[in-house]
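Standup notes
- HV: blocked on the assembly model, inputs below
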Amino acid sequence: MNIDHFPSRLLEEAVTEFSKLPGIGKKTALRLVLHLLKKEQDEVHRFSEAMTRLRDEVKHCRLCHNISDSDQCNICSNIARDHGVVCVVENIRDVMSIENTQQFRGVYHVLGGIISPMDGIGPSDLEIDSLLKRVEEGGIREVIFALSTTMEGDSTNFFLFKKLKGSNIRITTLARGVSVGDELEYTDELTLGRSIVNRLLYEQIIS
Amino acid sequence: MNIDHFPSRLLEEAVTEFSKLPGIGKKTALRLVLHLLKKEQDEVHRFSEAMTRLRDEVKHCRLCHNISDSDQCNICSNIARDHGVVCVVENIRDVMSIENTQQFRGVYHVLGGIISPMDGIGPSDLEIDSLLKRVEEGGIREVIFALSTTMEGDSTNFFLFKKLKGSNIRITTLARGVSVGDELEYTDELTLGRSIVNRLLYEQIIS
């Protein structure tokens, strides 16, 4: 369906705005907008205000650059967390993913991207200087690289490693290996190869 | 990914609002909201305002009940259209679909739904009385039923037919037949059967 014949300019504008979102085509946008149109007025206002307020009022933590409702995020201001272990991630979603594992008690550093010459993203576009500053200021024992295991992720890891290796801290990265629940038959050769080379004591898995 | 660990209440609220939309899960909502968060402030405001303004300011045409920016829609106020031919449709999207064919020069009547006892929608929930009133007022030569060819659509057609058959107007419905571009092998038997019974002169197709 080609949807050029909008009966209302207001409808057209709403659909146009919605279809600017990634993965939302004109047809989906129309469906969503017509859904909103059927809702109570205050529900639609609540929807719009949630977006506006998020954009206007959200802050970034001055330490880790995660988004936050205040100048310092809940994780950085939590004294029960280990502030000596910093996990370096690409974005906010990665923080949320790792938090959901409930396996990490340290703090984070959100780079805001990874080095990607193809997309014109260099080290200066990322929160790398502030990471180096945090390390320089002392108190950090370990930096964990938790970036994607892609070429860009590996390049960024290597760049950070070169910058950090002078300082007397432990630099680690997420373990590479067979995913829990994966069948060996479908595991790629590189991962399988690394997981044999870096094999673990069985006791480490069952403990 | 389970996404319960929101770093910000504002983010959580925006994601919650977005995930109320049909077909938008929490993960998609988060992706869309983080996209908005990266946009310029005025772009986000434009998005929110488009939704609020649509809900607050959009009107329904007092004649055909299509949505409109004024009391009378563009189609109903267009003197070049044939106001003697009224096409009855379920909703706004159907008007847009038919308008896009550029094959119809009459006007519309938007019922706002179809009779569906299972969903508790009866004739009084729809714009049926206003259709009968339009017909009574005269000037209408033909009413075209353009509802879905489902049981509910057929029931609604039949209900309207009973109400309208006393008046001296032509009552028609969309032709049933094989879709243009469809292979016969995949056409359902009922459609194929009807399209043989109601077969057309070949000249009608090629003209």
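- HV (later): unblocked. The longest helix of chain B spans residues 41-57. Chain B touches chain A through 62 residues (CB under 8 Å).
- Next: hand off to the docking folks.
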